[in-house]
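Quick illustration, no need to memorize.
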Amino acid sequence: MKWVIEKSIVEIIWARSLEEGWRLFSENIDVDIVIMDASLGDNHDTPDSMSLVRKIITSGYKNPIIAASSNARYNVLLMEAGATHTIYGEGKIAAALLARKLL
Protein backbone atom coordinates (compact mmCIF):
# COMPACT_ATOMS: atom_id res chain seq x y z
CA MET A 1 0.00 0.00 0.00
CA LYS A 2 2.79 2.42 0.87
CA TRP A 3 4.31 2.39 -2.64
CA VAL A 4 0.94 3.22 -4.23
CA ILE A 5 0.58 6.32 -2.10
CA GLU A 6 4.24 7.36 -2.29
CA LYS A 7 3.96 7.57 -6.08
CA SER A 8 1.54 10.44 -5.41
CA ILE A 9 4.27 12.40 -3.59
CA VAL A 10 2.57 12.65 -0.22
CA GLU A 11 3.80 12.42 3.34
CA ILE A 12 2.70 9.24 5.08
CA ILE A 13 2.19 9.16 8.84
CA TRP A 14 1.82 5.68 10.37
CA ALA A 15 0.33 4.85 13.77
CA ARG A 16 0.47 1.48 15.49
CA SER A 17 -1.87 2.19 18.39
CA LEU A 18 -4.92 4.29 19.20
CA GLU A 19 -2.87 6.57 21.44
CA GLU A 20 -0.19 7.06 18.80
CA GLY A 21 -2.87 7.63 16.16
CA TRP A 22 -4.49 10.41 18.16
CA ARG A 23 -1.13 11.98 19.04
CA LEU A 24 0.03 11.98 15.42
CA PHE A 25 -3.32 13.30 14.19
CA SER A 26 -3.25 16.08 16.82
CA GLU A 27 0.27 17.04 15.72
CA ASN A 28 -0.73 16.99 12.03
CA ILE A 29 -4.30 18.32 12.11
CA ASP A 30 -4.05 19.50 8.49
CA VAL A 31 -3.80 15.99 7.00
CA ASP A 32 -5.68 15.61 3.72
CA ILE A 33 -6.89 12.05 4.23
CA VAL A 34 -7.00 9.35 6.90
CA ILE A 35 -6.83 5.64 6.08
CA MET A 36 -8.04 3.77 9.16
CA ASP A 37 -7.70 0.09 9.97
CA ALA A 38 -10.23 -1.24 12.46
CA SER A 39 -7.71 -2.91 14.77
CA LEU A 40 -4.92 -0.67 16.01
CA GLY A 41 -4.50 -2.27 19.41
CA ASP A 42 -2.58 -5.36 20.42
CA ASN A 43 -5.45 -7.70 19.58
CA HIS A 44 -5.93 -7.59 15.82
CA ASP A 45 -8.99 -9.82 16.09
CA THR A 46 -10.92 -7.10 17.90
CA PRO A 47 -11.97 -3.88 16.15
CA ASP A 48 -11.05 -0.95 18.38
CA SER A 49 -10.47 2.15 16.26
CA MET A 50 -14.07 3.34 15.97
CA SER A 51 -13.52 5.57 19.00
CA LEU A 52 -10.54 7.17 17.25
CA VAL A 53 -12.64 7.86 14.14
CA ARG A 54 -15.27 9.57 16.31
CA LYS A 55 -12.58 11.56 18.15
CA ILE A 56 -11.06 12.75 14.86
CA ILE A 57 -14.47 13.84 13.56
CA THR A 58 -15.32 15.57 16.85
CA SER A 59 -12.09 17.56 16.54
CA GLY A 60 -13.59 19.21 13.44
CA TYR A 61 -11.84 17.14 10.77
CA LYS A 62 -13.84 17.37 7.51
CA ASN A 63 -11.63 15.50 5.03
CA PRO A 64 -12.07 11.88 3.91
CA ILE A 65 -11.60 8.98 6.31
CA ILE A 66 -11.26 5.64 4.51
CA ALA A 67 -12.26 2.49 6.39
CA ALA A 68 -9.54 0.05 5.35
CA SER A 69 -9.91 -3.18 7.27
CA SER A 70 -9.46 -6.48 5.46
CA ASN A 71 -12.58 -7.57 7.34
CA ALA A 72 -15.68 -6.17 5.61
CA ARG A 73 -17.72 -6.31 8.84
CA TYR A 74 -15.13 -4.11 10.56
CA ASN A 75 -15.37 -1.60 7.70
CA VAL A 76 -19.10 -1.36 8.37
CA LEU A 77 -18.32 -0.54 12.01
CA LEU A 78 -15.87 2.16 10.91
CA MET A 79 -18.48 3.62 8.55
CA GLU A 80 -21.02 3.66 11.38
CA ALA A 81 -18.42 5.51 13.50
CA GLY A 82 -18.14 8.19 10.79
CA ALA A 83 -15.67 7.07 8.13
CA THR A 84 -16.63 8.64 4.81
CA HIS A 85 -15.42 5.93 2.42
CA THR A 86 -14.70 2.23 2.53
CA ILE A 87 -13.15 -0.50 0.46
CA TYR A 88 -15.46 -3.26 1.82
CA GLY A 89 -12.79 -5.90 2.26
CA GLU A 90 -11.03 -5.29 -1.06
CA GLY A 91 -7.60 -5.03 0.60
CA LYS A 92 -5.19 -2.32 1.65
CA ILE A 93 -4.04 -1.61 -1.91
CA ALA A 94 -7.63 -0.66 -2.78
CA ALA A 95 -7.58 1.85 0.10
CA ALA A 96 -4.38 3.40 -1.22
CA LEU A 97 -5.80 3.63 -4.74
CA LEU A 98 -8.98 5.24 -3.39
CA ALA A 99 -6.85 7.73 -1.42
CA ARG A 100 -4.98 8.67 -4.60
CA LYS A 101 -8.28 9.22 -6.36
CA LEU A 102 -9.63 11.40 -3.54
CA LEU A 103 -6.51 13.57 -3.21
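Residues 47 and 98 are 22 Å apart (CA to CA).
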